[in-house]
Amino acid sequence: MTKSDAIREPLVDPARLARWLDEAGLSGNGEPEIERITTGHSNEVFLIRRGGAQWVLRRPPRTPLSPTAHDMAREFQLLSALSASNALATVHELPHVPIPEPVAFSADAIGVPAYLMQPLDGLVVREAMPPLFAADPAAPTAIAHSLIDLLVTIHAVDWRRAGLDEFGRPDGYLTRQVPRWTGQLDRYRTRALPEVDEAAAWLAAHTPEMQSPTIIHGDYKLDNVMFAPSLPVSPLAVLDWEQATIGDPLVDLGWLLGLWCDPGDSPVFGGANAALLGHGEVPTRSQVSARYSEASGRDLTHLDFYCVLGLFKLACVMEGSYARFKNGTSDDALFSFLEEGVPALARRALEFAT
Predict the structure, then answer these.
(1) From CA 125, how far away is CA 127, in angstroms rounded?
(2) What positions belong to coiled-coil segments (predicted)?
(3) Class of the CATH-defined domain 1-119
(4) Where are the domains of the chain?
(5) What is the dihedral of CA 154, 155, 160, 166, to 10 degrees?
């Protein structure tokens, strides 16, 4: 099969999907309707309809970057653990993390690992504010506060009690980050990236002592949180857990804040909060980090390290996407932007390297 043939082949075969739904005992019969709803640039997402029922399906992209980048079984395990923990949250006063409810997983029913989850009806803030929120000047602050409060809640979950003892390797997690991501980058590196290499060297020389381990999302950002389609602003679910593990919670905070725009900043890579700007007061980076510190009790002395790390990791991930585009194994035209976008991410990282 040629590269162009692979791109033309359907990502979800209706007949194979129908057999999976039958085997899982899910309602309806006949061939399911499949609608691609992916708006990200990593795993593929589809809305499935059959017999009056609906589910959302997630599967890896056509050309996975690495075994850990698109591990559907691992993501389904995490969602299942959080779902069970949430069921006990009210009775036992435990943290409740809103998530899409997992339904079924298969390692090969559609030819690749995939899972089904319940659909959600909500709003996701991406490039622009949804009109409902844009009309409310209190919405930007409420959204920013919700982001931080949800992150605190994720990090407060007792991961051992949730059955995630074997989910990650927290010992040495922080010291493994630079070698891991540099090694991944080297597997698909096709060009010189001096700014990325400089950021890697700075991180290796400035790694602090790791914080007590928690569940970490791994890709925590504004467009991975869904909000209820009503006011006042209320979070509905945290999405896209493919990078979740057990590790240093400040990795999530640094990932979020590395691209957070303060007044006067030039947005890089879209800016973590760019959609909120111009619609009301938006908390600054220092204000949202202070909210996290106060609610979590964690020391943020080395927050700059985590911002550098987040941007460095993003540069490594995006270079993989650029390599896929250059090799003709991705049909996502956005990836052409990464020729200049990846070095820009690394330069942003070096702004925090003080």
Answers:
(1) 7
(2) none
(3) alpha beta
(4) 1-119, 121-354
(5) 90
Residue type, 58: R
Q: Which CATH architecture has domain 121-354?
A: Alpha-Beta Complex (3.90)
Q: Which residue has the tokens 């890697």?
A: 200
Which pTM does this prediction carry?
0.91
Number of other residues whose CB lies within 10 A of the CB of residue 244: 27
Q: Stretch 95-115: mean pLDDT, rounded?
A: 96
Q: Token match 């390692």: residue?
A: 107
Helix (H, G, I), strand (E, B) or coil at 305: helix
241-275 pLDDT, tens digit per residue, is 999 999 999 999 999 999 999 988 888 887 899 99
> How many Å apart are CA 40 and CA 3, to the nearest integer?
22
pLDDT at 332 (0 to 100): 64
pLDDT score of 84:
94
Q: List, in order, residues 6 or more apart from 77 with CB less than 8 Å away.
A: 167
How far is 189 from 196, CA to CA, in rounded Å?
A: 11
Mean pLDDT of the chain: 91
